[in-house]
Automatic annotation (TrEMBL):
GO biological processes: calcium activated phospholipid scrambling
Lineage: Eukaryota, Metazoa, Chordata, Craniata, Vertebrata
Broad class of where this protein is predominantly found: membrane
Alphabetized UniProt keyword annotations: Cell membrane, Glycoprotein, Membrane, Transmembrane, Transmembrane helix
Name of the molecule in the record: Anoctamin
Domain of life (superkingdom): Eukaryota
GO cellular component: plasma membrane
Positions of region (Disordered): 733-759
Residues that span the membrane, as ranges: 215-242, 295-313, 401-422, 521-544, 577-599, 656-681
Species name: Sarcophilus harrisii (Tasmanian devil)
Domain (Anoctamin transmembrane) ranges: 207-382, 389-699
Membrane topology listed for this record: Multi-pass membrane protein
Domain annotation Anoctamin dimerisation: ranges: 43-204
InterPro entries according to UniProt: Anoct_dimer, Anoctamin, Anoctamin_TM
Length: 759
């Protein structure tokens, strides 16, 4: 009802975009052709579904501009899983391996060049990256005001959604379907996402072809991590069984449970009653299941396990990056972010490519980064800082965002475990002198050690929390899809709903929007922190994690195949900054395990008593109990004991200081043993296998030879666009600018050879 004169220019522009047919938009029409338009009416609403594809000339131009690698020659042998190769040599059947139809072939590749187009293997061009680039960078107003790209139009509700469609339905028809007749989505569902495939290798090459390298690397890491949990689970179960078999023979536990030698214990707080030591018999036995003679061995094992796991993942990641043609993606192929291109105040010449690129001064970047760090410390408005830092590429932008949010989430989720492990019961005082914090008395531990409390909290997290999250992942997406479908067809009869739901646009729009991999990575990396930083308190944590991850792989696979709209296939060289986060967690785990053994576990106390008093631990309980101060006895008219190394006056005893020195020495020795061994593992295991280095050189040589053999002067192909229309960068008034759409003479727009759909 507003008058048009009162609207600002940006609002007028959006209204014009909403009211104008897409066929009248020259910026998009010179790039894209519309395959078909479909209208669906739901009550008073009308939803237009537009299927787009680009002409062959545009796809070739952008394939060269984006430096997309295209196949030159098929490899003589196809890659397979390492264990499969080994078992084939030994003549043993591998129950985990399965033949998946339509396996993508491995090729020697090189960057696409129009002058050498005939050299490339005749495959259908991967059109989604080119179309995504067009939609992300096409401007519809003043670029410096951010009026460009499909994301801005989506945020302003000009469009409801933009996504590539799935290949077809994922269900297999009742009459059955031959494997060679299945579409890619059906193959992924039947050979990957089904629950019956829980013990089969993941078809990662199929995942990469359909969803892109970024999603494929997530599932590759998740599967690799799950496989490595198997030895950790076995060792953890053995350590737990050792505790089960030795708890009945433990002398200190027998002393606590002996009713005849029962002792009155002092109150745990100023208002608490006196209690008998035998009342904590069951808690002590449970504590010995987790805190036993195998604790130190298991902590050392898990520290080295984490280091070795990361080293082998680096090698696995390098192999996959080579197979998937993204080995040097971050260095040579990744394009600048559209917002960086627009907002960069100047350009500079790239020393590698010798081309002008948008540039943001480091001084300005550090100022923005410092501002972001200040906000993170204050834990306010976390998603905003990364937007101001002006990272050049999408990878750097995502890494910055992930790091900030992860720090907040890690502290938030682990704060209670850290409190139990290192603070609870250490500042509670002693009878007659209980300490308070803001008028509230500090918590105490029942048996003098909070190890059993930490184990209990770990069991709640690793069992209860993981089951709850898995149930949410099963039911929440189904409910969201049902609700979205109900809102979409709110006022249509059932027959019309079925007719509309059979069209390509509706079947994809009914699904959920893909929101990225952050939540999936965050859940798994937090879980990795649990089983490394606090694993001493719960040797069964790797086993529960293994069982959870078997379910998690299939749940995530079903979400991507059945419940999400197909995401844009994004390239990635590895799992990004998540690997550096895992490395930091591994180093924190070494320090945490040392502190837990030294201060939370009673391992060092027992060892000290064995070497100074009695090796069989007779009298150990009396050794750990102090007499109540005389002032407290006079006031309460009751003698009692409490667990501490203090004298009758309440001062720290000589034994306490001896044990403190031993604890600190143990931490130093533990770190100086683990870190050098970890460094040695890092040296002995190169990040990139020698076989991958050789293959990279071979491919470079073959590509160079193939191009040299066909390098003859020839005119530019008819589809070559003007060189001034460089993607991503254009000199304009001293600033970086988005590319301008190529112009075609009226009536001479080239016809597409084959459809490359984009909804």
């Amino acid at each position: 009802n507003q008058k048009s004169e009162s609207l600002n220019p940006e609002t007028k522009l959006f209204i014009r975009w909403k009211s104008t047919s897409l066929h009248d938009c020259p910026q998009l029409m010179c790039f894209l052709l519309f395959f078909f338009q479909h209208l669906v009416k739901s009550g008073k609403r009308s939803i237009h579904y537009v299927l787009l594809h680009a002409p062959w000339i545009v796809l070739c131009y952008y394939a060269e501009a984006l430096r997309i690698k295209m196949p030159l020659q098929a490899l003589p042998t196809q890659s397979s899983h390492g264990s499969t190769k080994l078992m084939r040599k030994l003549g043993i059947w591998n129950p985990l391996d399965e033949e998946v139809p339509d396996r993508p072939r491995d090729y020697y590749t090189c960057q696409f060049k129009g002058t050498n187009a005939s050299l490339h293997h005749p495959l259908t061009s991967p059109s989604i990256p080119q179309l995504s680039e067009i939609l992300e960078k096409t401007s519809f107003g003043h670029e410096r005001k951010g009026l460009f790209g499909i994301e801005h139009l989506l945020s302003e509700k000009v469009f409801k959604a933009a996504f590539p469609p799935h290949d077809g339905p994922f269900q297999i028809p009742p009459e059955g379907l031959a494997p060679e007749e299945m579409n890619q989505r059906q193959i992924l569902y039947h050979y990957w996402a089904k629950w019956s495939k829980w013990m089969k290798y993941q078809p990662l090459h199929h995942v990469r072809r359909y969803f892109g390298e970024k999603i494929a690397f997530y599932f590759a890491w998740l599967g690799f991590y799950t496989a490595w949990l198997l030895p950790a689970s076995l060792v953890g179960v053995v350590v737990f069984l050792v505790g089960c078999f030795t708890v009945s023979m433990d002398i200190p536990t027998q002393d606590i449970c002996d009713i005849e030698q029962d002792r009155w214990m002092c109150p745990l707080c100023s208002d608490c009653p006196f209690w008998k030591l035998s009342s904590i018999c069951k808690i002590t036995k449970i504590s010995r299941l987790f805190d036993n003679s195998g604790t130190v061995f298991f902590s050392v094992f898990m520290s080295l396990w984490a280091v070795t796991f990361l080293e082998y993942w680096k090698r696995r990641s390098a192999r996959l990056a080579h197979l998937w043609d993204c080995y040097d993606y971050k260095d040579y192929e990744e394009q600048p972010r559209p917002k960086f291109v627009v907002m960069a105040p100047m350009t500079t010449r790239n020393l590698v490519t010798n081309l002008e690129e948008p540039f943001f001064p480091k001084k300005s970047y550090f100022q923005r980064a410092f501002m972001s760090a200040s906000i993170i410390i204050a834990m306010v408005a976390l998603p905003c800082p990364g937007c101001r830092e002006m990272h050049k590429t999408q990878s750097k932008f995502e890494d910055s965002f992930v790091l900030k949010v992860f720090i907040f989430q890690f502290v938030n989720i682990n704060s209670f475990l850290i409190y139990i492990a290192f603070f609870k019961g250490r500042f509670s005082g002693y009878p007659g002198n209980y300490r308070t914090f803001f008028g509230i008395q500090n918590e105490n531990c029942i048996n003098g050690s909070c190890f059993v409390d930490l184990a209990q909290e770990m069991l709640i997290i690793m069992v209860g929390r993981q089951i709850f999250i898995s149930l949410l992942e099963i039911f929440i997406p189904k409910l969201q899809v049902w609700r979205h479908r109900k809102n979409l067809y709110a006022k249509q009869n059932k027959k019309k709903e079925e007719e509309n739901s059979n069209s390509l646009g509706e079947t994809n729009y009914e699904l959920l929007k893909y929101e990225g991999l952050f939540e999936e990575y965050l859940e798994m990396v937090i879980q990795f922190g649990f089983i490394t930083i606090f694993v001493v308190a719960c040797p069964l944590a790797p086993l529960f994690t293994l069982l959870n991850n078997w379910i998690e792989i299939r749940l995530d696979a079903q979400k991507f195949v059945c419940q999400y709209r197909r995401p844009v296939a994004e390239k990635a060289q590895n799992i990004g900054i998540w690997f550096q986060i895992l490395q930091v967690l591994t180093h924190l785990a070494v320090l945490s395990n040392a502190l837990l053994i030294a201060f939370t576990s009673d391992f060092l106390q027992r060892t000290y008593y064995q070497y100074t008093h009695s090796y069989d631990l007779h009298g150990y309980i009396n050794f750990t109990l102090a007499q109540a101060p005389k002032a407290f006895v006079l006031v309460s008219n009751h003698t009692c004991r409490y667990q501490a190394f203090r004298e009758g006056s309440g001062k720290r005893s000589f034994t306490f200081w001896n044990l403190l020195a031993i604890r600190l020495a143990f931490i130093i020795i533990f770190e100086h043993v683990i870190f050098p061994v970890a460094w040695l593992i890092n040296v002995l295991l190169p990040d990139v296998p020698e076989s991958v280095k050789v293959k990279v050189k071979q491919e470079y040589f073959l590509a160079k030879q193939a191009l040299a053999d066909h390098e003859v002067p020839q005119p530019s192909p008819s589809w070559k666009l003007p060189s001034a229309l460089a993607v991503g960068v254009g000199a304009r008034r001293g600033r970086a600018a988005l590319q301008r759409p190529p112009s075609f003479p009226r009536g001479s727009r080239p016809a597409a050879r084959s459809p490359f759909p984009w909804v």
